[in-house]
Amino acid sequence: REAFNALLKTLEEPPPHVIFVLATTEINKLPETILSRCQVLEFKRLPPGVIIESLKEISKKENISISDGALKIIANKANGSMRDAISIFEQVSTYTVDKKSIDVDDVIEVSGEVGKEWIERFVDIVLSGRVKALLQELDALFESGKDPEAFLTGTILYVENRIKSMLGEDSSPLTDVRSLVDLGRKLMEIDREMKLLEDKRSTMTLSLLSYIYTIRPEKEIVKEKVEKATEENVPDKWEEFVKYNLEKGKIDIGVLLAQANVKFEKEDKVKIEFEAGADFLYDMFIREEMGIKQMYKDFAGADVTFIPMLSSKKFLNEEDKMAKLVRKAQLLLGGNVKIVRK
After folding, report:
1. CATH number, domain at 76?
2. Angle in degrees, CA 167, 169, 175, rounded to 5
3. Angle in degrees, 0-180, between the axes of helices 82-95 and 48-61, rounded to the nearest 10
4. In the chain, how many domains are there?
5. How does pLDDT run across 51-98, given as a tens digit for each residue?
6. CA-CA distance, 9 to 4, in Å (whole number)?
7. Cα(96)–Cα(38) distance, integer angstroms
């Protein structure tokens, strides 16, 4: 503050031959007394494509071979700043001076970035509420020497891109989008806290655990002992999954799944068969397949591949079908079910 006050007098009565050019990336930190005496020009961040093309020109003049994937990572990490992009490029080129070409792995190692596969796995673990797996991922992150703040920045960018991709798909359930939005906001909150607190590991760990236990009541957290699906427990999980959808208000999905014959061919292969004439149910499942797959993974902690089929036969006559639906409704919803015929 004292430094700004000292500068203020000079700005008010500048020498006739002097023009002050002040540059900052945090204009919010400048006092109003300084800003009111300046003409403010806001420069837009450079898009990644412009940064990549500029780096290509530099690499060509310096006779440095670098892959497009490596340039993309540098451009994204620079966050619109050509200066930062050149600085990262110089660091990487110095580190790889003995190599013929710079690739993605070189940039990741030098810049402290984490690969996309790691970030994808991390996000899926958090969204599915797997506490033990989350703790293992955080241990691996901090023991690897990677910059946790850079990891958070990369994860936030990944979540944002995933949301944009899902919003562009008509079949993406809004509940999945909302979960990602909530996670993105939490990650930004953690990022702000980590800049203020010295113990970054504890800050990140406790904040993420708090998030998981906030969005998922204790009874819904996937327990480690049943996290990995097997041939014996997957069918039971499917019944629970149908009930889970109904209890959560996803009536259309719950009813759709309840009317299919489900057979587990292998641990990760699930045959979903609809009876002859139920074309609309089959078509609905095809439309919702990716969303149902992700919901099942979040619920049961298992990746499965669906094999949707339309049978050439009717499963049951009308009376048997009605009896089966009543039994399933009683099992899933509890209480008495009354059939009203018109």
Report:
1. 1.10.8.60
2. 55
3. 40
4. 4
5. 999 999 999 998 889 988 889 888 888 888 899 999 999 988 887 777
6. 9
7. 44
